[in-house]
Amino acid sequence: MVPSPRPRFILAPAARRDIRAALEWSEEKFGSRAAQRYCALMKQALRDIAADPERPGSMQRPELSAGARTYHLRFSRGRARASGTVKNPRHFLLYRRSEEGIIEVARVLHDARDLDRHLPEDYRRNPS
Q1: Which of 19, 21, 76, 117 is most buried as measured by Cβ atoms within 10 A of its Cβ?
Q2: Count of beta carbons in the 10 Å neighbourhood of residue 3
Q3: What does the CA dihedral 77, 82, 83, 84 come to, rounded to 10 degrees?
Q4: pLDDT at residue 81, as a whole number
Q5: In Å, what is the CA distance from 104 to each residue of 17, 36, 50, 98?
Q6: For the chain, how many structural domains are there in total?
Q7: Is 76 in contact with 88 (CB distance < 8 Å)?
Q8: Is the residue at 92 inside a domain?
Q9: Is 83 exposed, middle or buried (0-12, 13-18, 19+ CB in 10 A)?
Q10: Which residues of the chain register pLDDT less than 70?
Q11: Which residue range is the domain that position 30 belongs to?
């Protein structure tokens, strides 16, 4: 049996900063175990969209740009590999699939944030 290739994704620099900030905040507010659970949840969400970018829970975002999608972390809670669950995840992934089939994650944003304000330029339909 030939092993299937690992799902591929790329994190933009802004997405890496978003993840670091979310995990630092989680550790400050809830402790290192909570941050570890949140990290496991983020990793699972990334694996999930890499395996199936149009998985249940993902949303097309045609108002942003062609191919743009969002996926809230809560849809990956049941599959996250960590001791304990994140009760109320508050982040979502902004991503799209490249022509080569690689998932490009542009941002990892808190769901209370104004998406338009944090949208990368190349995700804007009508750049100003």
Answers
A1: 76
A2: 5
A3: -20
A4: 73
A5: 15, 24, 9, 7
A6: 1
A7: no
A8: yes
A9: exposed
A10: 1-7, 82-83, 125-128
A11: 9-112
